[in-house]
Amino acid sequence: MIRREFLVRTLSAAVASLFARDVFAQHSMHSMHGMSGMDDMKDMPGMSPDHAAHSHAAPSAGNLAPESALPAGAPLAAFRKLANESSEPGVFRATLVAQSVRRQLMPGHSTALWLYGDAAQGSIVGPLIDVREGDTVEIRFVNRLPQPSTIHWHGLPVPPDQDGNPTNPIAPGATHVYRFTLPRGSAGTYWYHPHPHMMTAEQVFRGLAGPIIVRAADDPLAAFPERHLFFSDLKLASDASVAPNDMMDWMNGREGQFVLVNGARRPRLTVAQDERWRLWNGCSARYLRLSFGNEQTFTQVGTDGGLLDKPRDGLTELLLAPGERAEIVVRAGAQPSTAVLTAAVHDRRKMTMTEGRSLPADPAKALADVRFEPRPSAARAVPPTLRPIAPLLSSADTAAGKVPRKSVVFEEAMDMKSMHRPGAMMSALPPGMKFMINGATFDPLRIALTSRAGEVEIWSIENRTDMDHPFHLHGTQFQVIGRELDGAKTTEPYLAWRDTVNVQRGETVRIATVQRDAGERMFHCHILEHEDLGMMATLKVV
Ligand code: C2O
Ligand code: CU
Ligand code: CU
Asked: What superkingdom does the record give (predicted)?
């Protein structure tokens, strides 16, 4: 069992009934001095000296940097691009090194991050892997982290043994080559991130994640200029170090004080003609209800697994759960104007450490400042159909009752007593908090479900917990068929390929899904703290 850099402070009975957020804020200020038990952290596996030194000043909500500590208003940064080392047509060969890099994010301070590539300059987001359908991709991964890691190709249909499963860790100092070929029809917007057992959250919040674009030869939107926005979350202490998770981060998923767009706080951009935007929610836990902060509309043209069959016009907002991606067309308009790209108020029923209580909704957050300066002939038409999407299941299949069905149930067990118990604690994962799938937390040796390759199935994903969880399934793109909440059933109004779907508290989401290759696939909540706490299971495909 790997012990974590996780500092839970004891709570006195007197404060136990307060909202934990406040409890931790107050408590961490008292415990800043004379925190005991810190010294043995240096000996923890995976604990870099740098890291251990910082944990003496381990902050909680009490001493985070103010939101103004990161400069805002720079032009939207372009991605770094992963260079193709191959000159063979149809082969993309490259090297990704995961390593510790110091960057000055807060003026006058340096922050130790874990990044892909040396990234001494440019965006701290991992470099863009820009490839085409049909390409053979060969990525040499060099792990210079003090912990085992893997690279997972989130959403891509890669063979199970190439997908960076937690059961295939790459040791510190080791190198591993991932190899896969991108099939036809796989064009879309994906990402890559580490997936080691119980260390995914930390590796991602220290900076490891990057975008992937797979392009089609016959892209109906090829004429649109593209804009890329990769959203990530950052939580910095007042000394500019990456803050560790506190109890509330484990319970609700970590949300820092900063939401970054391509690695910077609140950048600005100018839209002079109609554009195609690719959007990534690379945050550990933050839901992004995206809007322009007003009634301005946009058109959704794609989801996780590429283009929709038909564009969805006239949207004023779009919810992206952690892990999800989307493509939208943003119009330059007829007149110059400005807007604030915003994560609008959203309630995902975050929990408190008091039984039965929820935190208030998340307030709105400004993500980027947008100027619209339309030049003549800025407008471009979106075709009325984008590409055919065949339903995975015909209604005849379903009616005949021959479709195999699987049930996935999200459950929680909160033992408030042990969470609040004096001395409950430290080092290991937080006590008294269980997030489960089908009654159990993750066990790398257990197969939770078995499917046959090539056989379409209906999965129902039922959320019996007190908060929302984004469900994610590896190795394939599925179709949402319908949802049921409080007895009200709705069928999904449009066809789309997804690998991540939010399941609200009390909701059941039904999907049609099929796996192509035999092997083991993960499915889990994409709030990374929940994944690490065991809200993950293995699907065996035979
Ligand atoms: Cu992006 Cu298994 O996750
Ligand atoms: Cu994934
Ligand atoms: Cu979750």
From this structure: Bacteria
pTM of the model: 0.89
- Residue 210 in contact with ligand 1 by CB distance below 6 A: no
Domains of the chain and any CATH numbers: 1-386 (2.60.40.420), 395-541 (2.60.40.420)
Phi, psi of 212 (to 5 degrees): -130, 135
Task: Single out the residue of 278, 176, 267 nearest to residue 226, CA to CA.
Answer: 278
Around Cβ 404, how many Cβ atoms within 10 Å? 11
Lowest mean pLDDT among 374-383, 409-418, 485-494: 409-418
CB-count exposure of residue 335 (10 Å: 0-12, 13-18, 19+): exposed
Residue type, 107: P
Please calculate the CA angle 405-410-413 and round it to the nearest 5 degrees.
145
Amino acid at the residue 477: Q
User: Coil, strand or helix: which one is 21?
Assistant: helix
Helix (H, G, I), strand (E, B) or coil at 310: strand
pLDDT digits (tens, 9 = 90+) for 391-429: 999 877 777 778 999 999 999 998 877 777 765 545 456
Binding site membership of 154 for ligand 1 (Cβ less than 6 Å): yes
Cα-to-centroid distance, 436 and ligand 3 (Å) = 9
User: What b/e string do you get for 89-125 counting C-beta neighbours within 10 Å, with b at 16 or more?
Assistant: eeebbbbbbbbbbebebbeeeebbbbbbbebeebbbb
- Ligand 2 centroid–CA 297 distance in Å is 30
Name the residue with higher pLDDT: 466 or 1: 466
Q: Model confidence over 228-286: pLDDT tens digits?
A: 999 999 999 999 999 999 889 999 999 999 999 999 999 999 999 999 999 999 999 99
Q: Which atom of ligand 1 is nearest to the CA of 155?
A: 1
For residue 195 and ligand 1, the question of a CB distance below 6 A is answered with yes
82/94 Cα distance (integer angstroms): 7
CA of 198 to the centre of ligand 3 (A): 14
The percent of residues above 70 in pLDDT, for the chain, comes to: 87
Token match 């004096």: residue? 422
How many angstroms separate the CA atoms of 418 and 58, rounded? 23
Phi, psi of 164, deg, nearest 5? 70, 35
Listed residue (418, 426, 435) closest to 527, CA to CA: 435
Q: Name every residue whose Cβ is closer than 8 Å to that of residue 47 and which is 6 or more positions away in sequence.
A: 5, 41, 146
